[in-house]
Amino acid sequence: MQAAIDEVLATQHMNTRATSDKTFHLLVSFRAGEKPNANILKEIEERFCAGLGYNEHQRISAVHHDTDNLHIHIAINKIHPTRNTIHEPFQSYRMLGELCAIMEQDYGFEKDNHSSVRNIAQGRAADMERHAGVESLIGWIKRECLDDIKAAQSWTQLHETLQVNGLELRKKGNGFVIVASDGTQVKASTVDRGLSKSKLEARFGFFESAPEQKAKAKRQYRKKPVYMRVSTNELYAKYKVNQQTLAAEQRVALERVRRDKNKNIEDAKRSSRLRRAAIKLMGGNAATKKLLYTQANAALRKKIQTINKEYQRERHSCYDKYKRRTWADWLKKEALQGNNEALAALRAREAAQGLKGNTIKGQGTASPNQNEQAPIMDNITKKGTIIFRVGKTAVRDDGDRLQVSREATPEGLQQALKLAVERYGNNITVNGTAEFKEQIIQAAVKSQLPITFADPALESRRQILLKKENTHDRTQQDRRRAGRSTGHTGSRPVANNNSDDIRFFVDPNRNIHSPAGEVYASGQYRKPNIGRIGRVPPPQSQNRLRTLSKLGVVRIARRGEVLLSSDVSGHMEQQRTKSVNTLRRNISRPRVRLSLDSWLQYKPEQITAMDKYIAEREEKRLKGFDIPKHSRYTAGDEALLFAGIRNVEGQPLALVKRGSDILIMPIDQATVNSLKRIAIGDAISITLKGSIKTSKGRSR
Of 193, 239, 348, 683, which one has the greatest count of Cβ atoms within 10 A? Predict the structure, then answer.
């Protein structure tokens, strides 16, 4: 980042004639709930810059998620990188409004009003009410008495109406101003164009001043919070006292800093006078004394400059420490410090519209878990939305529901569900896309939370997955217990007591008890099972070696071959027995899931194309693009969704989605033609031979 900034500054220094600001700051904001992906954000950024004529200019863009509205900050260098000329778009707001309308239609965003009917003063008043949370004089007049003022039929009626509302109309310059009782004034034509001097004099004649006897005011304008759904009288009184206290503390701190500065300067001057006196008393010629006086004077100036710099730094520190805040900013500060009343006031503002998009809502009895550490609170917006950080996942809480960021990880989704249960209840309502709902179901199953979904379809899906998960866990536990009873302990060698030198080794990358496990004998691949000997063992003891010591087994040459005493070779000096394949017997065993880790069935060019595509996507993901993790396909029990087809170097590749990851596998042209008939997001499965089976039942 710093290197890019240095390059932009170097380019700007090449233009020595321009005196205006050489950086164009553009802010692109989206409606609450609209969260386009990284590719769309990049396209929007490029189209805005091209529309303003900055497509060839240097720029730095940053996407922010720290407010209720996703927004992009774009810092554009106005200086052209090769011509070194400055480009200033004429009336850029017109072009920006047109571009916004076009992009809303192209990308399906919610339409907004880009042609404002407000003038500059009205816009500033609206901004003050929205961001500061304090009622403006323009807004108060429009809400309380504008209709009565416009209904006046003479100067007398107009003045009486204004006086009843604690206002006064005065001449100022070439127009009129409306003044409140506290001295706040606003241009009359800013309130309404019908109150301009020309319009009023056209209706009532030349201006007549207000009469001496004033009507009693029934109401007056006071700077107070805009309308909220809760009472904020006590909080606002506390806010006013806090602001007055801050102003007094700021004056005291500034006065202290000023005294310290004056004292340090006086000490420096006293030290300089002593030094000059010492130079005067010492011997030496005039040239030497002149040089010493010059050095003493330079040292004094340098000391005073250092004192002034320290004074300026301390002044800025005082202003920052005792800075007076607006009403909304003060509420935000109090909410960050744990004031629940301030948080409720923020959420009761008219500006707070509620979270949209992928949201989770809980109902019922909240059950806070005191044992687990709460997620880190990152920020609170002026609308009262709390932003939590769980790794790379942002979870927003507006007091009614939770919203999960688009880049949510499985851990972040599980944490969001826990928050919903702890804050609102275990009856969960999920709103958003079908993909988000599936991710929430998977998170609910993984976390084993005691929740229920309000949607019957989601609850039914959760029950099915939960049953499968529990069955899978019990199976794994049974296999581990069975493995311990036979002496198989992971990747350590397991010796056979009836054999002289044959040992079985387990591949350290696999579990010997899993269906896909493979056993190596003497470091080589062998046949997968040993046939049954004697009576049929019970189901839990099938295909095991624990009963071999009770039978007439002499030696094991290969897995799947058992030698009886009559079949031992007479040539014992060979130190091994001959294979007797006639004794092999078919056994019943569980179906083995195909593992594609070796990828031996594919051509080298297919593997190369697949790895190249994965490397390209992973490189972009690591740079911060919103791209899911890409990897080779491996067998698993989770549901698979079709995610598309890609062609890399002439080799077709299938994209399969499992959870939040994208898995890649090569396919042939027949499979491509079959997959073109299904839509992205449809459920698919991978057969034991590695072919793709669509929901229509056809395999490719």
Answer: 239
Q: Render pLDDT for 51-97 as a digit per residue (tens, 0 to 9).
A: 999 999 999 999 887 677 788 999 999 999 999 999 999 888 888 88
CB-side exposure of 637: number of CA atoms within 13 Å?
11
Give Rg (Cα) of the chain.
39
- To the nearest 10°, the Cα dihedral for 287, 293, 295, 300? -170
82, 85, 87, 90: which is closest to 16 by C-alpha? 85
With tokens 């000997």, the residue in question is 533
Per-residue confidence (pLDDT) for residue 49, from 0 to 100? 93
**Which residues face 662 on adjacent strands?**
630, 657
pTM: predicted TM-score of the whole model, two decimal places? 0.51
Helix (H) or strand (E) holding 643, with range, is: strand 640-648
Q: How far apart are CA 386 and CA 395, in angstroms?
A: 8
Asked if 579 contacts 525 with a C-beta cutoff of 8 angstroms, the reply is no
The CA-based angle 311-316-317, given to 5 degrees, is: 95
- Give the start-end residues of each E strand in 134-182: 167-172, 175-180
- For 189, the 3-state DSSP assignment is helix
Instruction: List beta partners, residue 506.
Output: 519
User: How far is 523 from 508, CA to CA, in rounded Å?
Assistant: 12
pLDDT tens column, 295-335: 999 999 999 999 999 999 999 999 988 888 888 888 888 88
- The amino acid occupying position 59 is R
Residue 648 has phi, psi (to 5 degrees) of: -120, 115
- In whole angstroms, what is the distance from residue 307 CA to residue 311 CA? 6
Structure tokens at 387: 């932003």
Which DSSP state fits 225?
B
Contact 75, 59 (CB under 8 A): yes
Q: Which two tokens stand for residue 64?
A: 């922010």
Q: How many angstroms separate the CA atoms of 593 and 449, rounded?
A: 30
Closest Cα partner for 180 from 224, 147, 212? Answer: 224
Contacts of 422 (CB under 8 A, 6+ apart): 366, 367, 368, 369
